[in-house]
Amino acid sequence: MALVGRPNVGKSTLLNTFVGVKVAIVTPKPQTTRTRLLGISTLPQAQLIFVDTPGIHRPRGSLMNQRMVEVAVGVLQDTDVVLFLVDAQQGLLPGDRDIAQRLKDARGPVVVVVNKIDLVAKPALLPILEQLAVLLPEREIVPVSARTGENIPDLLATIITALPVGEALYPSDELTDQSERVIAQEIVREQVMLQTQQEIPYAATVLVEEFTEKPEKRLLVLRAVIYVERPSQRAIILGRGGSRLKEIGQTARVHLEAFFDCKVYLELFVKVTKGWTNSPVLLKELGL
Ligand SMILES: Nc1nc2c(ncn2[C@@H]2O[C@H](COP(=O)(O)OP(=O)(O)O)[C@@H](O)[C@H]2O)c(=O)[nH]1
Ligand SMILES: [Mg+2]
To answer: Three-class SS of residue 13?
Structure first.
């Protein structure tokens, strides 16, 4: 299943809700998700494989933005079901209508998910549901809250009906196609995004350069580099006397230890690489 929708409608949150653990990072900032990733949930009656994508938005500027949109659009071609998410609180914006237009003639099933219903009074949902029914006639529309889990069982039932019959594609204990190194990278990037403002979240990327397990000590040793584009951005990430970097590192470590279920030793560096968002080499390393 492809999860599509404008940035920030809750695609990654919904994927995490189905998988049961956080395999995709989530922040209040648009364009948090940069690459395609799978979340897998194996139930007695079905195996659900969700493809999380960077939001579909109008590409502007950098090669990274263009690649992100290409990734999102490409995913539509090779999935069985499309879950099209909209934000109940924001209502339908032009970006949603663009996507609805693209999905209108899709051959396979499209399920429209009206997310974040915990934020709106029930009567306020009606106009959105009516507008969607006009835009995408004869498609199922399911209001949910990915955050509280409200109506998720209904959505589950709807998507299971829409799925083709077939063999499970992944072992039942597999939750994602991301390597542990990439998950570590994303956990650090999530903290960079949460703890900085304005352009920094988008100017920064993280590469884990060392990932060493020491099972005898139940310890994971990580060395990660935060790349930014300008010296001024490096200064902001470091913070006064290195205080912000320290905070990023400490919080990331807590999340890393919870995810990997062992002690984590995390070393963080900040490097300036002018124009990394346009660097094919670095983008390739990031899977874009
Ligand atoms: N209140 C509420 N917030 C949500 C819900 N789903 C997602 N969010 C929030 O919306 C923001 C964007 O979510 P995210 O999953 O990163 O969106 P994505 O860009 O579509 O992947 C985050 O702050 C989430 O916590 C929901 O059902 N209710
Ligand atoms: Mg996302």
So the answer is: helix
